[in-house]
Amino acid sequence: MSFTGIFHFFTNSPCDAAEPWQLGSQDAATPMMQGIIDLHHDIFFFLILILVFVSRILVRALWHFHSKKNPIPQRIVHGTTIEILRTIFPSIIPMFIAIPSFALLYSMDEVVVDPAMTIKAIGHQWYRSYEYSDYNSSDEQSLTFDSYTIPEDDPELGQSRLLEVDNRVVVPAKTHLRIIVTSADVPHSWAVPSSGVKCDAVPGRLNQISISVQREGVYYGQCSEICGTNHASIVVEAVSRKDYGSRVSNQLIPQTGEA
Amino acid sequence: MAEIELKTAPADFRFPTTNQSRHCFTRYIEFHRCLAAKGDGSAECEKFAKYYRSLCPGEWVDRWNEQRENGIFPGPL
């Protein structure tokens, strides 16, 4: 989250694109990403616990291993109680980690409701094409468009370099979407970090992912499987819209008018 | 501003995994088998048509249509 100036106390500008020197995750836009972030926090807690404990013991051992301060080193080699404890206790910690982890893993696969919409994301060298085919009454697509990254010397003021595209994918907010990812030539990968999505686009295979974007906004992602010279330039950008209906019908009408 | 009803191919329990290639192929075949069984232009088959159009990329559908026309479609039509 970044706050733009002291006069904008109530302005939220969510982090939905990579920021320079960013350490943490981007803000979650889907329940899945929120689950991933929560799991990360759970694991991180245990990680810090173990880190502090182990470092303390290590430093303490080094500190006391000083020939002037402790000339006689201890020669303890056994200790049944402590050995049992130091075996049991570290095996309980991964259980605490596993419980939220498996809960998230299986909940990600659960089919709760049927998707309301299917979008096909097809990777090419070096652009994306998207097909929205839920509305057509014949084999010709009703809505297909290509999405090219705006080249480096072209962007307008305020646009991110190599992160903007000419045609964005528009999806309705709070709707269960099924995204079918595939490729027309070499393997690509469709990734949008704020939505917790990364799915390989393999030629000859349709990979399905389900997301439900919870808030409106523009989400950026990049191609995540090396695909050639302009691999860095493929970008996925999804805009979540309440008035999706009007937006799509505006695009549909010119299409069906020509078709 | 017409309200677009959002409806698409439902999640098929026969294909619970991430790989939906078989799902798309099966819907396509079901449509054409339905056409063969019920005659062309039958309204019941339209449901399968919608499903495969939602799931399958246009290129795949075009290629299969061509293969069907040439009699080399590799599936149990």
UniProtKB/TrEMBL annotation, chain A:
Pfam family, one: COX2
Record-annotated Cytochrome oxidase subunit II copper A binding domain positions: 114-250
InterPro entries: CcO_II (IPR045187), CcO_II-like_C (IPR002429), CcO_II_C (IPR034210), Cupredoxin (IPR008972), Cyt_c_oxidase_su2 (IPR014222), Cyt_c_oxidase_su2_TM_dom (IPR011759), Cyt_c_oxidase_su2_TM_sf (IPR036257)
GO biological-process terms attached to the record: ATP synthesis coupled electron transport
Transmembrane segments: 43-63, 84-106
Cofactor: Cu cation
Stored PROSITE patterns: COX2_CUA, COX2_TM
Gene3D superfamilies (UniProt xref): 1.10.287.90, Cupredoxins - blue copper proteins
SUPFAM superfamilies assigned to the protein according to its UniProt record, in alphabetical order: Cupredoxins (SSF49503), Cytochrome c oxidase subunit II-like, transmembrane region (SSF81464)
Cofactor comment text: Binds a copper A center.
Major site of localization recorded for this protein: mitochondrion
CDD domains: CcO_II_C (cd13912)
Alphabetical list of PANTHER family matching this protein: CYTOCHROME C OXIDASE SUBUNIT 2 (PTHR22888:SF9), CYTOCHROME C OXIDASE, SUBUNIT II (PTHR22888)
Family in the record: Belongs to the cytochrome c oxidase subunit 2 family.
Protein name as it appears in the record: Cytochrome c oxidase subunit 2
Automatic annotation (TrEMBL), chain B:
CDD domains noted in UniProt: Cyt_c_Oxidase_VIb (cd00926)
Superkingdom of origin: Eukaryota
Compartment list: Mitochondrion
Keyword check for Mitochondrion: yes
Keyword hit for Lipid metabolism: no
Cellular component per GO, a single term: respiratory chain complex IV
PROSITE patterns, A to Z: CHCH
InterPro entries: COX6B-like, CX6/COA6-like_sf, Cyt_c_oxidase_su6B
UniProt cross-references to Pfam families, sorted A to Z: COX6B
Disulfide bond annotation, renumbered to this chain: C24-C56, C34-C45
Family of this protein: Belongs to the cytochrome c oxidase subunit 6B.
Annotated function: Component of the cytochrome c oxidase, the last enzyme in the mitochondrial electron transport chain which drives oxidative phosphorylation.
Protein name (record): Cytochrome c oxidase subunit
Organism of derivation: Daucus carota subsp. sativus
